[in-house]
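FORM 7B: Structural annotation worksheet

SECTION A. Query
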Amino acid sequence: MAAKSKARRGQLFLRLDVNDERIPKLAGVVFLFFAFYFFIAFTSYIFTWKIDQDRVLRFSWELLLNGDFEMANWLGRLGAIVSNFFFYYLFGLPSFFVVYVLSVLGVAFIRRTPLPVFWPRIRYAMVWMLALSVLLEFIFARALFPWGGAIGEAVNDWLYGFVGTVGMVVFFLALLAGLLIWNRNPNFNDLTLPQAWEELKYALDDLLKGRWGPKRPSERLEEEGVLLRTKPGALPRTPEGSPPLQEPVTAPNQLALDLAEDAEIIREKPTSDKTTDLEISAPSSASPGPNLEPVSPSSPSFAPMGEEEGFSEPYDPTLELSSYEYPVVALLNDYSDHKVEIDREELETHKDQIIETLLHYKIEITKIRATIGPTVTLYEIVPAPGVRISRIKNLEDDIALSLAALGIRIIAPIPGKGTIGIEVPNKKKQVVSMKEVLMSEKFKRAKMDLPIALGKTITNEVFVADLTKMPHLLVAGATGQGKSVGINAILMSILYKKHPSQVKLVMVDPKKVELSPYSLLENHFLAFLPNQEEPIITDTTKVIHTLNSLCIEMDTRYDLLKKASVRNIREYNDKFVQRRLSPLKGNRFLPFIVLVIDEFADLIMTAGKEVELPIGRLAQLSRAVGIHLVLATQRPSVNIITGIIKANFPARIAYKVTSKVDSRTILDGGGADQLIGRGDMLLSVGGETIRLQGAFIDTPEVERVVEFIEKQPGYPEPYFLPEYHGDDDIPGAADIKYSDLDEYFEDAARLVVQNQHGSTSMIQRRLKLGYNRAGRIMDQLEAMGITGPSEGSKPREVLIYDENELERYLEELRKKR
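SECTION B. Predicted structure
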């Protein structure tokens, strides 16, 4: 029995749990131990190598086993052997990069960070170690100290014999130039001498400080998901307060469009006399411009107290979560090859068919050219003088028949141009991945309050818009055409660009499954009612309460703006950051609030006016106070998208619909019924309609990003919206018996009357109760006439002013027991 018991204990000891958090932490400690050990050994070698080298070079196992040998190395015989091995036989002085690699691995294991995040650091460290080994050996070729080690000496000797001394100098200069170009990616066409000097200065600074990848001084972007932040509070930020993204751009040169910008990139050629001159304009495959370096944030105190308190540094709301790390794009999949395939045979065939169809109806054109997009090619034609545009517009079905293609759309004329556009779907359609869009220069440099990356235009350029300028967005289309993916793209844009202190999300999901992955962001980005059990709102009653709560929040914010003498949330937050508004007077930093409703039609059918009226009020008034709405529906009918909704949602996205009536309901015009589906959309804003191919992001990618954020420390409690009670939520005093009151009811009543301050948080804190129980007690105090109704974020009015009067009131309640 004893033998079996001992064997069983041995099996249990060897049966390691791969999910045990202690195992990676112990591995991290081991790596850090070796990093520290090698650092001491290598540092000691620099000062003691002459003394120990004679014995170490004649190495034998006796050196390890015989205790009579004494070494000058600070770590004894083993330290001398290890350091000599790396310095003499391997890389010389650059062997210190081994210490760096071990430290990175140790930190990765302790923090349980995925190792692929750190591969770029390790790869660059190995490249630098080899390059510096060769360079040092070339500079100190005759020195006794092993500057470059045996590897550096071997490579240096081979290069010397192959290209000679002058050739090696040229080689190292070319290598340096290559590193600078890779690090800065300068635009040589527009580069002036002063700019070149600035680029060289910043590039050398980057190389010396170990910052690799394409970066600029005002936006230091992190490469391939590598998080370069090492200290809390050292969060890199752009001048507009937006975080950098963490991966280099390999996509084509893409300039995302603001809503007011023109979407054209067609390059005109000299006028030709040929009727069928076809000019193909495709995006350049050149790599994008270098990125910008972030401005390091100041280190203000935790909370602003106003100028009268003597604070001179601006307030930084992100310091409440100073260690927060933005999601890395390595969490997303890349579905595109970053190239637009040009099938010249297909282009020529379509061109000939368009010309033949038009000539069949005696319509002549003077020029035709094509612009290739990810899923659609735009053919621009210039009609001959005297040709009426309406004749071409009426041939939409005939051209579609000749091309044997679905989704042909004629734009007659193209706004701002003297041409007519014919959009023809490509046979080989390109998937636009969310990763590619987030890596684009336009999105990373976006100076917007709430940038949302929707996808690519027909000219293959990334399209980024500011939600605060829309200021609300209506998304509609038939089932399975990309609405849910589009909502995920909007949410991912916000999560990748904004800190939890800057924006809060209110999510309504009547279908209960579309937005459920975001429930993990409860303590980071989500906002909901205090007594709500689930962070994602699915119950219709809770939706009504939430919408009315947002109306209370809106009114409260307008009161704050009025007292601060400002017109909008940006001016208010600027004043608060500059400490010109004191929190002692009720002021607070106001994050943007984005309300996302995934299936609006279901709410209208079940609640009707109870939902439509608060949404209409929010849509009309909430823009200035930073509350923005995103509504999605698969039923674009007039009883769902009513006049109130259409009047207050000037920005609308239409995916493919089944009829022209539905298209006119969404866009006030046709076109949505001619889309090809799978993310193909029309964005109508400011009187302009733009065709886009939506960025694709799959559910597993969303889950990875959400888990990345959820694993980080969040706020102690979620962002609670103001309390709201419906007409039937609080019973009257006549309906409550004394025995039904909470046992802490009297203590809470005395506390409220003594302080003349009625708030749930005070009862919770002073009586040490949970928030839900304190909220129920507050409801009872209101029902019994001790406090007034809720006024949003303001304390409730106390209706009893004297403690003696309260005691008489409580005594009467006890007698009625």
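SECTION C. Observations
The chain has 25 helices and 16 strands. The mean pLDDT is 78.

SECTION D. Sign-off
Analyst initials: ____
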